[in-house]
Amino acid sequence: MVNAPSIGRALVLNASYEPLGAASARRALILVLNHRATVVEESDTELHHQSGSFILPAVIRLHRFVNVRFRRTVPLSRRAIFIRDGGRCVYCKKPATTIDHVIPRSKGGKHVWENVVSACHDCNHLKDNFNLGELGWRLDPKPFEPRGHFWSILGHGKPDPRWEPYLSNFGFTPQNPNEIVKLIKAANS
Questions:
Q1: Is the pLDDT of residue 46 over 70?
Q2: CA distances to 37, 47, 82, 176 from 138, in Å
Q3: Distances (CA, A) of 89 to 112, 175, 188
Q4: How far apart are CA 25 and CA 12, in angstroms?
Q5: Confidence (pLDDT) at 1
Q6: How many CB atoms lie within 10 A of CB 21?
Q7: Could you tell me the sign of the dihedral formed by the alpha carbons of 57, 59, 64, 67, in that order?
Q8: Which CATH number, 1.10.30.50, 1.10.10.60, 1.10.560.10, 3.10.20.90, labels domain 78-135?
Q9: For the segment 75-99, what is each residue's pLDDT rounded down to a tens digit?
Q10: E-strand spans in 31-150?
Q11: Can you give the pLDDT at residue 83?
Q12: Phi-psi region of 186 (alpha: psi -120 to 50; beta: other; left: phi over 0)
């Protein structure tokens, strides 16, 4: 059996073509094989099995409408923090390599969205166990908890270009990662 993370992801659309989220291509294929979804766009990946092969889906549409009534919380992860902060150190704007607690955990800082930022190794090392005020540093913009519909998709990284026609109908039209971050910040304000 093929390992799911190595075969990519698929966009899952509601019966109304509204984007619901991203699933592993393996999960999307299972939904199609169980007649719970239809392939809308195929990927470039072919999965071979004993009696033939399948082309994995890139976009699927569920047969039944799913009414989503709850607010999705975005799990706090290193990847999601890097996406929120644009992959850059919030202190010096170099490429981020690690995460940092704005208020160090040893000084009562919590491991929550509003206290965790992406940082480069140099800034993280310089900041050490100090508060920003002790170093004379400022944080602009302030860290925030991501909210909004597209985080269920963006939390998995950069969207597949084949997803854009289905996402653009719902206000999602970024051309580069910086635009993704701007869109997310605008949705949160």
A1: yes
A2: 49, 50, 19, 27
A3: 18, 21, 21
A4: 10
A5: 41
A6: 19
A7: positive
A8: 1.10.30.50
A9: 888 888 888 888 899 999 999 999 9
A10: 37-49, 52-62, 98-101, 116-119
A11: 81
A12: alpha
